[in-house]
Specification:
Layout lengths: L1 H66 L11 H25 L3 H45 L13 H9 L53 H39 L16
Amino acid sequence: MVVVRDRLLGLSKMWRVRSARVFLWVYEDSWLRNFARFLLLFLGVVFWASATVLTFGGCFVILLCKNYHYLFQESFFPLPGWLAVVAALVLLPTGILAISVSARNSRYHQGTLMHLLLVLLCLQVSLAILTQFYSIWMAVELKSTMGQAFNQYNGTHSLAHGSGTVDMLQKKLQCCGLQNYTDWLKGPAASWHSLSEKSRVPRSCCKTYVDCRGDLNQMDQLFQEGCLRKLQDQLHYGMKFLFSCCVMLSVLELLAGASNGILMTHQPFYDFRFLESSVFS
């Protein structure tokens, strides 16, 4: 009787321990699922907002390349901008699916969401690599074409493809010269006015055309910063902005994929359980 009682006590204690473990596992499992749902809901809203930000960055790069297309010999420089717009369009349904999955566990929505996240991750990685590569390539291209334009300036037109290229560039960017205003006083760029004239800069360097003839005695009326640095800074800002968005979104997409994976483990594909039946044994 003593042995039986000891065994019963042992079984009772083992059952209590196992019950406590099961309860703790269920509690932790429920907490993890709730956290995954909340995180997906939050990330869905973030994806919508990120789509707007990414569209802004992509349009900025596209318009920048379009406005200064005469300085780029290659026609595919706006590619990072268009890729950013495509990624933004994919972000919209991804955000909707993330919110939908957080509210209701649908295995079809979960599978579609996982595929979209994978597509987005590939797009973001490709875009991040392109922005770094294009930042260097476009800076070299600008230095070459802008140098040629400033050297060929003759007071009325520069570059054979159109008149007033340099003047238009200096007005848009509010700059003077390639590196700074002194570029107009030395080298090939200084030949745009006759040697008998007093050294001056083009009137497009003037902040305002009222009583300004480009005379160096009126430095307060002239832009002094170089055009090359200004345009390169704008391009660098656009590419850096897109790169930062890509890095941040890649991390968020990995978090969304992990959260979706947690919910998928509790919503198995029951339709495929017939494979375990005796038909295939």
